[in-house]
Design brief:
Layout: E1 9-19, E2 25-36, E3 41-45, H1 52-59, E4 67-72, E5 75-76, H2 82-91, E6 93-96, H3 110-117, H4 132-138, H5 154-166, E7 172-176, H6 184-201, E8 204-208, H7 212-215, E9 220-225, E10 228-234, E11 237-240, E12 265-268, E13 273-276
Parallel strand pairs: 3-8, 3-9, 6-7, 7-8
Antiparallel strand pairs: 1-2, 1-4, 4-5, 9-10, 10-11, 12-13
Helix pairs in contact: 3-4, 3-5
Bound molecules: adenosine-5'-triphosphate and magnesium ion.
């Protein structure tokens, strides 16, 4: 029997740099502090290049952060040996990378892809796991079981990649844009599958999405901005998040009036902070400074 239920994740001061061919460093993440509870369902949002995929790959133990720590439950995966990480990826954390085909073996069949994804799981642990055929049925690919992946459509590959990711019955499922190529009908079915997995097994689910309809089904959203957590949504309400060293992102609709480099005055009361343009200083009503 496998451990039932999900597991939590925590990032502390996570920084990630990529070195380009020309030898330049690109800062993809610049200080991410984030905690995800066991069994939580979270959607990562944010503009292209804001670091969503990088953060997901770090949480999945596919890349190591340049600095900072990442914990899966109590285990620090940023310092784990490669052997332990491989075991963890095979059995506890499943990551579906952006672009379905990167997760699949293109020259073999759907059914065999599911078999390969479970290669690192001892067969005794799979006794009560769904069969390859049951998984394919769940994602609407029963008729494609013996079809070779390279002949499948983008949407079919995306659904197969998800079936492969859940085949190991992971405690954490990380999925990078799992519905970007699906029709509305297929998208809704896949989103339902993700939530069912959470309900039935307590699996912790993190998805990256650009689709508001998908994000709206998640109780928590984390919006990335410039390599940091910019804001969070909880049960429909939106909050700004104070980052490392007190950094705070302005909501994006305010940035045109408050461009980078603007000097502001900050006055703090016990439960309120007022940010004002020096030119407006005299205009702050006293009752607003609490
Ligand atoms: N392998 C790489 N080499 C160099 N730079 C990279 C690499 N991968 C990502 N980057 C850069 O890191 C930053 C963050 O990229 P990331 O892919 O995490 O963003 P994203 O939020 O997932 O974007 P998208 O919504 O387009 O998928 C970007 O500036 C990107 O160009
Ligand atoms: Mg991405």
């Amino acid at each position: 029997m496998r451990d039932a239920g999900g597991i939590g994740l925590r990032c502390a001061g996570v920084v990630h740099l990529y070195r380009t061919f020309e030898g330049h460093d690109v800062v993809a993440l610049q200080g991410v502090d984030l905690e995800i509870q066991p069994g939580e369902r979270v959607a990562f949002l944010g503009p292209s290049g804001s670091g969503k995929s990088t953060l997901l790959a770090l949480l999945g133990g596919i890349q190591r952060p340049s600095a900072g720590r990442i914990y899966l439950g109590d285990d620090d995966i940023s310092r784990m040996s490669e052997r332990h990480l491989a075991r963890l990826r095979a059995r506890r954390v499943a990551t579906m990378l952006q672009g379905a085909t990167r997760n699949l073996l293109p020259y073999t069949t759907a059914r065999r892809n599911i078999g390969f994804s479970r290669i690192g799981v001892p067969s005794a642990e799979l006794d009560d796991a769904p069969t390859a055929m049951e998984l394919l049925e769940r994602v609407g690919l029963a008729d494609q079981a013996d079809q070779v992946v390279s002949t499948m459509s983008g949407g079919q590959r995306q659904r197969l990649a998800l079936a492969c990711a859940v085949a190991t019955q992971p405690q954490v499922l990380l999925a990078d844009e799992p519905t970007s190529q699906l029709s509305h009908l297929d998208r809704d079915a896949v989103v339902r599958l993700l939530h069912d997995l959470n309900r039935d097994f307590g699996t912790t689910i993190v998805v990256v999405t650009h689709q508001p309809e998908v994000a709206a089904t998640f109780p928590r959203t984390v919006t990335m901005k410039g390599g940091r957590v910019g804001s969070e949504g909880r049960d429909g309400a939106e909050y700004a998040v104070i980052g490392a060293e007190g950094v705070l992102h302005l909501p994006s609709h305010l940035t045109p009036q408050w461009p980078p480099g603007t000097l502001v005055r900050i006055e703090a009361g016990p439960r309120r902070i007022v940010i004002s343009h020096p030119a407006d200083d005299t205009g702050i009503p006293q009752e607003d400074v609490r």
